[in-house]
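Weekly structure sync, notes
Attendees: PL (lead), two postdocs, one rotation student
Agenda item 3: pending single-chain targets
PL asked that the sequence for the first pending target be pasted directly into the notes so everyone works from the same version. It is reproduced below exactly as submitted, 295 residues in total.
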Amino acid sequence: MSDSRFKIEDSRLAIEFLGVPVLNLESGIFNSLFRHLRLFLLYFSQYAKARLEYRMDFFSSVFASLLGTLASFGFLLIVFSRVPAVEGWSFAEMVFLYGFSLIPLGLFNVLSWNLYLFADRYLIEGRFDRVLLRPVSSVFQVLFESFRLESLQETVTGTIAVVWASRRIGISWGPADLLLFAAWVLCGAAIYLAIFVGLTATSFWIEDRIGISPPVFNLMQFGRYPLTIYDAWVRFALSFVIPFAFASFYPTARFLHHPEFLREFWAVPAVAALTLWLSLALWRSGVARYHSTGS
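Predicted structure, written out during the meeting:
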C-alpha cells in the first residue's frame, strides 16, 4: 500500500509537508490550505479539550517541564558566576541565545510527539494502514494527531529570556527586526521538524521500535551555545551535517551584532527549505516501500 499523494514531483514537496495536495496551483492551492488549516485547528482543539479534562495532570506536566528549562538557565548562572565571559560572549548574550533557541524548540516539541512514537505506534502496531486510507497527507496526520501542549512553556520562557536579555544588552527592536525575528523562529522550528521527519522516515527501512531520533535529539543541546566554543569538527557537524546551528545559533547573529555570522544568518530560510525538501523526499521514498503488517 502506498500514498498516491507522494507521486507529485519533488519541486512541490515543500507544499506537501503541510498536507496540501498540489493538483492545481492556480485554483486549488488556497482551498487546500484553508481545508488543512481547518483540519489542524480541529485536531488541536479536540486534543486540547481531551488533555485539559485532567487539569492536575496537565499542569503538573507543565511544571515539570518548566523545572527542566529553569535548570538549564541555572547551569548558565553557575558558569558565569566563575567567569565574566565565555569566548567573548557575555551572560546576557548567552541568555538571549539560549532563550531564542527555546522558542522554535517549544513549537517543535508541541508537534513532534508522534515522531518519537512513529515506529512503534504506526509501523509495528499497523496504524499506518489507517493513515494511508484517509484523503489527507500522511505527514499531516502523523504530526497533528497528538500534541505535547506542556512544551508551549518553552516558547513562553524563551520569549521572556529574550526580552530580559535584550534590555540588558540594549537591543532596540524596530518593526523589521520583529518580523525577522518571528520569521527566523518559524524557520528554526521548520528545521527541527524537517530533521526529525527525515530521521523518522528511516524507520521504514530500519524497522526498530525506538529508531535513530533519540540520540540525535540529545545533540540539539549543542546548538544552544555559541559555536565558537567548540572544535572545528563540531561546528561543521552542527552546520552542515545536522544543521541545528541554523535553527538556534545563526539566527541570533544579526540581533547580537556578530557580523562574522551574517552570511549564515541570511542563509537560514534556504537551509529550512532544503531540509524540508530532503526530509520529504526521504518520507516519500519510505511510504513508497511501506507494506501493510496485515494485522
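Discussion points:
- The beta strands are 85-86, 89-90.
- The two ends are 14 Å apart (CA to CA).
Action: rotation student to compare against the earlier draft before next sync.
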